[in-house]
UniProtKB/TrEMBL annotation:
Protein's name according to its UniProt entry: Stage 0 sporulation protein A homolog
InterPro entries xref list: CheY-like_superfamily, OmpR/PhoB-type_DNA-bd, Sig_transdc_resp-reg_receiver, WalR-like, WH-like_DNA-bd_sf
Localisation: Cytoplasm
Lineage: Bacteria, Bacillati, Bacillota, Clostridia, Eubacteriales
Role description: May play the central regulatory role in sporulation. It may be an element of the effector pathway responsible for the activation of sporulation genes in response to nutritional stress. Spo0A may act in concert with spo0H (a sigma factor) to control the expression of some genes that are critical to the sporulation process.
GO biological process annotation, one example: positive regulation of DNA-templated transcription
Domain spans labelled Response regulatory: 5-118
Keywords: Cytoplasm, DNA-binding, Phosphoprotein, Transcription, Transcription regulation, Two-component regulatory system
Modified residues (4-aspartylphosphate): D54
Length: 233
């Protein structure tokens, strides 16, 4: 099983190198960002499993990064900061951070925090419907093995792109997927025309899923951000 993809957001090169070396030596996959804006871009583009975030960034405060990410994702965020006051910890945790590690820190403690977070991810994954051969959400049913989709018991006729979009959303129920992340998964790029194509395909998919105003809403649009599949009773 692949280790989680970790986004390291740290502008201090020695600290960043220490974290990266630790991750590499324990076979973690990783990305790096030296400021807040790059961190947000990397998070939306690659959808990492865990974010290690410094608060004292050169462009924007780390709490702004947390707030931005929490607007569209529940990815675990572990703060690594020199700020040791309780008020700083409370502010970060209230903004949406999952854990707080104070500098200076030991490599062993960092690895322990990562292991705890990884166990949480595995528990979430094991309880996710995406691990099952058949996905059921309200009257929507996806048979992954047969590549067939049913709505109210009748087979739906979807284009290959529509099917890939629906599967991607179903594997992330309740999670907002950004335009960039979706287009990277579907087309392998995120150019302006890819995002325009995404809107067209999503519109046709929603018409098939929700042909009437009284139909349940399966896909929610987050304007300027992306899309999310809702859990339907």
């Amino acid at each position: 099983m692949n280790k989680p993809l970790v986004l390291v957001v740290e502008d201090d090169r020695p600290v960043r190198n220490l974290i990266v070396t630790t991750l590499k030596s324990h076979d973690y996959r990783y990305l790096t960002a030296e400021n807040g804006k790059t961190a947000i871009m990397e998070a939306s583009s690659h959808n990492p499993d865990i974010v290690l975030l410094d608060l004292g960034l050169p462009d924007i405060d780390g709490t702004e990064v947390i707030t931005n990410i929490r607007g569209w994702s529940n990815m675990p965020i572990i703060v690594i900061s020199a700020r040791s006051e309780d008020s700083d910890k409370i502010t970060a945790l209230d903004a949406g951070a999952d854990d707080y590690l104070t500098k200076p820190f030991s490599v062993e403690e960092l690895l322990a925090r990562l292991r705890v977070t990884q166990r949480r991810l595995l528990l979430l994954k094991s309880s996710n419907d995406a691990g099952k051969p058949v996905f059921q959400n309200g009257e929507l049913k996806i048979d992954y093995a047969a590549s067939c989709v049913y709505l109210k018991g009748e087979e739906m006729h979807l284009t290959p792109i529509e099917y890939k979009l629906l599967c991607l959303l179903s594997h992330n129920v309740g999670k907002v997927l950004t335009h960039t992340y979706i287009t990277m998964q579907i087309w392998g790029s995120s150019r302006e025309n890819d995002i325009a194509s995404l809107r067209v395909f999503m519109a046709t998919l929603r018409k098939k899923l929700e042909p009437e105003k009284t139909s349940p809403q399966y896909i929610q649009t987050h304007i300027g951000i992306g899309y999310r599949m809702l859990r339907v009773d």
